Amino acid sequence: MSKQYNQPLSGNDMPRFGGIASLFRLPTQATAEGLDVALLGVPLDIGTSNRVGTRYGPRQIRSESVLVRPYGMYTGAAPFDSFQVADIGDVPLNAYNLLKSIDIIEAHYNEVLQHDVIPVSMGGDHTIALPILRAVAAKHGPVALIHVDAHADINDEMFGEKITHGTIFRRAIEENLLQPRKMFQIGLRATGYSAEDFEWSRQQGAQVVPAEECWHKSLAPLMDTIRLKIGSETPVYLSFDIDGLDPSVAPGTGTPEPGGLTGSQGLEIIRGCFGLNLVGCDLVEVSPPYDTTGNTALLAANLIFEMLCSLPACKRR
Ligand code: MN
Ligand code: MN
Description:
The protein is of the alpha/beta class and 317 residues long. The protein contains eight helices and eight strands; from the N terminus they run βαβαβαβαβαβαβαβα. The site of one manganese (II) ion has 7 residues, from loops.
C-alpha cells in the first residue's frame, strides 16, 4: 500500500474562506516529527531598515494560501503526493529584542532539524535567514545559496549594528555558513550607499545577476547555468526576498525598488531549482500593511508552493 500523505483540505469539502488557516490548508502539528517538509512562520520585523509589518507576513500568507490547489498545472508537480508536509506553526520570538530573537530562531531550527526534514519558512524580515542558515549549516555544512532580492544584504553594518536584514549574507559568509563560489544573487538593482556596494559579494566569488540583466527575457537559461555550476549533490539553500520582484506585482514589502523581476521570472527561478539538492527555502519580507489587495501574500503563497514542487524528487504527473 502506498504511503498516505497529508492532503490540503479541499475547497469542495470546506469553503476556501472557512476552516483553520494553516498554510495550504494542511494539517498542523507541534513538531517536525514524521515530516519530510516542515512549513513554519517566523514573524519578525524588528530587523528592518524602513517600513515594518513583516511580523504579519506568515499569518497573511496562510490566509491567502487557501486558493492554492495541490497540483502544478504546467509542471505537473504533485508535492502532496511526494512528501509528508504539515504546518508546524510559528517561532515564538521576542518582539522586544532582535538579538534574543535571532538566538531563539536558531535554537528552534536546530530542534526542527533534529528530524530528517526540509524547512520551508515564511518571514518575517530577511534577518531570519541568518539564524536559519546557522542551523542548516550545522546539519549540512556550508551550503550553496540562491538568493533572489533587490538588495545584496551584505552591508558590514547598518546604524552600527552587525545583525540587520541588510547584513545577513556578509555574516553568513564570515561564519562559513555558505559556499561563496556557489552563491548566486539575482535581481539586485536600484540605488546603493556607494557605487561598489555589490563588489564585496563578487570578491568572495559570488555571482551577482543584476535585475537589468534579467529584463525582457526568460530566466530558464540562467537557471540551467546555475544548476550546472552548483551540481546535483551540493546542499543548496534558496532565500527569496519578495522585493526581488517588481513593486507592481509585489507592493506589500518594506523596501520596494523599481525595475524588478516579474512574477513569471520568479516562478522560473524557483522551477529552475528542481534537480538541485535543496535543503531549505524561505520566502521573506512580505509586509501585509502595504499589501492592500492581498496579492503580494497570494503571490508569496504560490511561490512557496513552487518551492515544494522543486524539492528533491518531487513527483511529476
Ligand atoms: Mn533581503
Ligand atoms: Mn530586499
